[in-house]
Amino acid sequence: MTIVERRKALLDEALAVASAPEYQALTAEAGRLAAAAARDRTDRACWLALLARLDVPDPTGGAHLLDLLASDPALTALGSPPLLTQQAARSLVSTARECRARGTRIGLGDISTLRDAAGPEALEELAGVMHAQWLAVPAPDRPYLERDVAVLLPLRLETMLSPEDDHVLWLRIVPDEASILRDDPTPKPAEASQLAAMWQEIASGLSPAEQALDFADWLDKPVGRQAFATLCTQVGPGRAAWLTTACPPANNAGTVSIDTSQVADAPPAPNRVGGLPARLEVWWAFGEDEPEFAEAAQPDPAVLVFDVIGSTQDGTDHERNRWWADWQAAKSVGPRHRDSFARQPLSGRTAHHLRDWDRRREPGGACPGTD
């Protein structure tokens, strides 16, 4: 039984006896669990939520963890005291502190140590509560739990003097190839049918003992490899691998079903820009001066699409009219900023000559086309 499954069972038990305020909080949490992506319902996600909490220095010596457990709506509704003891809470905080003293961060490799310090059931109860609090944060603001290696992707920066005002420098930011998303993020009904048929074919070829294994182990059996190869010929290898996680399976006594909550008969998504930060900052330097902040913009991914070219007869949708090729089109996309250089025109000037100019910023312009 996973941590989330135990948490769901606890919620169901608490809902049966909860008062009105507690019932509302418990219902909201159950809804968030049901709507969470498959990767966010794993034990790994629960452990990472707990580790993220422990990674924050706790001057209370573990009392904060006990307070969080005491305020948990499920435990409160049931009148159940937390399984975590005060001594165990101090041990968890101490383990995280020791990691920081060594110059490292507490991680998944420390779970066995934490489990020994708190006890398996107490630690899983705490992880379930930390995971619930993490899911309660609105998705756009929810901390990213994975500790991935950051990769800096290239951007093309283009500048141009404004035709209307040579005191104004336009800047266009164009993502490179690595930032262009070409996938279709919505599983289609036909794909879901093919995926469900694959899982059922595999289940039919497994013994009861093999059916009790994880689905990843199913795919490693001869019948699983053959069925997955068939799916790859139908939708492509990359799409097949993605579908197994986008529509996770469930086994009920040999009958396999898949999660179809994300399936829709929607048109394929256009090629689009992905991976841009929520905020882009522009800094500039004049001569040997220190770089200084110029402007910030918040790109809107919804409008940064590479749509179909040539769909009209009058030529108005030619590529040269798109935001990545046309300055005026770029200025119509996203938030608008304008940086003006006062007193002298920019034409023919170098950064060294600009060093002592007065600078001012006025509203106008755009991002990815910013002027």
List the helices and strands and how they pair.
Elements: H1 3-15, H2 20-35, H3 43-54, H4 63-70, H5 73-78, H6 86-101, H7 111-118, H8 120-136, E1 155-161, E2 169-175, E3 180-181, H9 189-204, H10 208-211, H11 215-218, H12 222-235, H13 237-246, E4 249-252, E5 255-258, E6 271-273, E7 280-284, E8 292-297, E9 305-306, H14 327-331, E10 338-341, H15 351-354, E11 359-362, E12 369-370
Antiparallel strand pairs: 1-2, 2-12, 3-6, 4-5, 6-9, 7-8, 10-11
Give a concise summary.
The protein is of the alpha+beta class. It is built from 15 helices and 12 strands.
What does this structure look like?
- With about 375 residues, this protein is of the alpha+beta class.
- The chain folds into three domains: about 5-140, no CATH class; about 155-180 and about 270-370, no CATH class; about 190-260.
- Helix content is about 40%, strand content about 15%.
- It has helices at about 5-15, 20-35, 45-55, 65-70, 75-80, 85-100, 110-120, 120-135, 190-205, 210, 215-220, 220-235, 235-245, 325-330, 350-355, and strands at about 155-160, 170-175, 180, 250, 255-260, 270-275, 280-285, 290-295, 305, 340, 360, 370.
- The chain has a three-stranded antiparallel β-sheet with strand order 1-2-12. Strands 3-6-9 form a three-stranded antiparallel β-sheet, with no helix packed on it. A two-stranded antiparallel ribbon has the order 4-5.
- Strand 1 (about 155-160) and strand 2 (about 170-175) form a beta hairpin.
- Helix 1 (about 5-15) packs antiparallel against helix 2 (about 20-35) and helix 9 packs antiparallel against helix 12.
- The longest helix has 17 residues, at about 120-135.
